[in-house]
Amino acid sequence: MGALDFLSDYFDISRPRKKRKAMQTVEIKVKMDCDGCERRVRNAVSHMKGAKSVEVNRKQSKVSVTGYVEPKKVLKRVQRTGKKAEFWPYVPYNLVAYPYAAQAYDKKAPSGYVRNVVQALPSPNAPDEKFTTLFSDENTNSCSVM
Fold first, then answer.
1. Which InterPro entries match (predicted)?
2. Domain around 34
3. Alpha helices (H) along 11-124
């Protein structure tokens, strides 16, 4: 009976299982002036449970953490180092329809990036967007004459 009791502990369905966090990449904007700031932020984040890799780009003021971590916990850990931190507010320039819209263009943004704001995205009901995508090469339902 000892072996069956041992196996029943592993297959017990009454006990809830812990959900595993999803693998994700968290990007945070942190102002870092020197090697000491960079080292302090890197050490704080790399010792987190679930963090697989940490990339620090001091020129862009960006920290990327990949692993089984929660974004809010990573942000709190970086803020505990004494640095002002926020989630990465920028998107690549080529993904935005209107990069020079109000509040989208930011002089402090790294090259090739603009701020992620609602005004920079096209409205789905805009007629000019519908006409430009209607006869696109990527549209498989477009006119066969093209």
1. HMA_dom (IPR006121), HMA_dom_sf (IPR036163)
2. 24-88
3. 35-46, 71-79
Helix (H), strand (E) at residue 2: helix 2-10
pLDDT tens-digit profile of 65-99? 999 999 999 999 999 999 899 998 888 877 776 66
| pLDDT of 138 | 66
Closest C-alpha among 130, 97, 137, 89 to residue 113: 89
Structural domain contains residue 139: no
Nearest alpha carbon to residue 86 among 126, 115, 43: 115
pTM above 0.90, yes or no: no
CA distance 119 to 135: 25
Q: Which residues, including other chains, have CB under 8 Å from residue 30's CB and lie 6 or more apart?
A: 41, 61, 62, 63, 78, 83, 84, 85
Residue showing tokens 């990449």: 25
- Spell out the residues 6+ positions from residue 114 whose beta carbon is closer than 8 angstroms to its own: 90, 91, 93, 96, 99, 104, 105, 106, 120
Kind and range of the H or E run holding 109: none
Measure the CA–CA gap between 61 and 107, rounded to whole angstroms: 14
